[in-house]
Each structure stands twice: as C-alpha cells, then as structure tokens.
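Long-time lurker, finally posting.

We've been working with Site-specific recombinase XerD (Natronorubrum thiooxidans) and I want a structural starting point before designing mutants. I don't trust myself to interpret raw outputs, so I'm hoping someone here can both generate the structure tokens and explain anything notable. Sequence follows.
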Amino acid sequence: MQESDSPNISLRGACPQGVALETVLSQELDSTIQSYLCTLSNEVPDSTYLSHKTTLQTFCEWCITNSVRFDGPIEEDVCQFIQHLLWDSDLAIATVRSHICSLGNYLAYAFQQNPELVMHHLASPLVGASNPDLETLGKQIIGNRVSETSSVTSSDVIESLISDLRQRQFGTRTHAYLELLLDTKSRPEQIRQLNLKDLALKRGQVRVGIPDTHVVNTVGLVTERSVALTKKTVDAVETYVEYERDDVIKTEAEPLFTTLNGRASRSTLRRSIKRASQEAVSNSSLTQQPSGASLTEHDVSEIQPQPITPNDVWQYATSKILEVDNK
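Top reply, 14 upvotes:
Generated this for you. Predicted structure of Site-specific recombinase XerD:
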C-alpha cells in the first residue's frame, strides 16, 4: 500500500525524456486536446469554448516556438509560459489568470485529476516568486487561506487535532472524516458525499467526486478521481465502518458517514470537527501560560485559538502541495 501524495501532473509519463514537443503534440497530447475541445464545443457556450481553444493554441505554439521538452514537472513550463504572457504579450493579470484556469481544466482532463489541485500545482512556483506580479497571480489562483486571528495558528490547532484524534478517538466518525480530508485534499462536501461503494480499502484507494463548479465536471469529462490512501487512513476508515458507523435503512447509495437518520449533514460533521479541535487544544500545551504569569483579557484572547472547521482542514491539506512543490 502506498502513501498518498499530491497529484502527479508531470508529463514525464506521457513522453520519453528529451523528446521534443512537436512529436508529442502530434500523438498523445494532440489527441487529448482535440477530444477535450470537441466535447466542450458541444456542451458549453461558444465564448467558453473559444476561450479554452485560444489558451491551448497559445500554449502549444509557445511550447513549439521555444522547443520545450517535458523533462520535469509541467508547472515549471507553465510558469515560463505565464511570464511570457505577462511580459512578452503584456497581458493583464486577470487575463493571464483566465488562461491558467483554462489550461488547468485541460490538464485535469489529461491527467484525470481534481482541477483545484492541478491549479495549486501550477501556482506553486508563483507563490514564492520574487516578482510581485507572479506572486500576486499565484495567491489569486490559490485563493484566500485560513486567516490567523491569534498567536496560536490554525496549523498548530489542526496538527494538535490530528494527533489527538489518532491517540484518543481512533476510528471514530470524526477521525475517519479528518483522515480522508487530509489524504484526498478534497473539499468537505466531496468527502461527506462518499458512499461505501466508493471505498476499495484492500487496494488502499477511494473514489472521490470532483466539484461541479469546474468545466471538466459539468461536461462529464472528469467527474471523479481515484486517490491512494495512507495506511493510517485505511485503518481508521476500516475501524469506523466496522465498529462506529451507524446502521441506516439500506438504500442504493449507502452513505459512508451516517447518523441514525441517514447521511451525516454538513452541520453535523462541522460540529464534530469544531468540538474535537476544542478538546484537542484543551489536551495540549497550546494555551498553557507561563508559571506565575498574570494575563489580561486581551492576552487571553490572543492565545485562545479559534475552533477548526472542515474547510480549515481542507485548506491545511492543500497548502501541503505548495510545501512539497517548493522544496
């Protein structure tokens, strides 16, 4: 069983190392681009189709002109392409961002991945860039991260929550839910919607849906993806299903996360994560004050971390993509 990691969007598996893009475009990539655009032409408004077509044509022409060879992760090539759009073509940041979104949807189709995670990979070389335009663009692509409102960061609380659930609540619904959020890096709603049939625990895998806010999902090109799970997650989910999952009236769906009334609601799972994070903080040293210290109300509010939500855990998980890519 393999450890799960961030989606691999390198093209090294699509073409032999050192092979010029002209060769590849006439074979695998060219066929996927044609298939992708053909589907879009029948399913989306003309303006959307033309936007995607223009982006892919521009990217391919740039690759051929610059004799790009896909010897490494494609995000490095895309970063060079972005610089070309910003500086050589003198496009506005908003226009370049639109190009990246179109390119990200195509790559999600080509590699059968979640477009959001692909976009995080494409943004990773930009976020830490010295050029302010590139850095701004990278942050816009990723979106707002968890705001830190106290001296104890959300990451501190989440890491404390992870440790506490693994040690004190192993195999509970809250624990299994959290581990799947971390491994899949999927949004909370996609994890809530999981059914028992989506699990392949003997193979260490789970099928997770793609948010319907992305073009590749709405046109039916990428509606789900298969994710490798860590052994910790497999053990947690197996324990939950066998001992902790509430039995419900059998339906065709058979939801994974349940209450006695059926599939667990968003609010139920949200409350369970918030409550568990508060318990984790109280069991940790995060808010312990120095011996003999006298704290004002302001001091107490500064060291009192906010409860964690499922969305915070998702953002924490996706932020790890940037850490891995920028090592």
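Before you design anything, note these points.
The chain has two domains: 11-142, 154-325.
Residues 154-325 form a domain with the hpI Integrase; Chain A fold (CATH 1.10.443.10).
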